[in-house]
Amino acid sequence: MPTDPVGRFLTALDPDHRKAVAAKPREEQERLAQAWEQELEADAELDTLDELSPPAAEAEAARRVLDRGTG
Q: Could you tell me the pTM of the whole model?
């Protein structure tokens, strides 16, 4: 499993979104990964989900970041 924020973010995405984000410039990938990490830290609902399934919490946070139009 990747340890850098961009690698972790890409891993959390579904395959179609992963491919689209991977095609973006590295700077944009880093910005999205930062927004994803902030989403994981800020949302209490994700804390609960993270206790049950960390990958599900990461995937949900990634979906939220992309749905907000930050991508």
A: 0.83
pLDDT tens by residue, 12-35: 999 999 999 999 999 999 999 999
**Nearest 5°: phi and psi at 3?**
-110, -20
Question: Which residues fall within 8 angstroms of residue 2, CB to CB, at 6 or more apart?
Answer: 8, 10, 11
Backbone angles phi, psi at 23, to 5 degrees: -80, -10
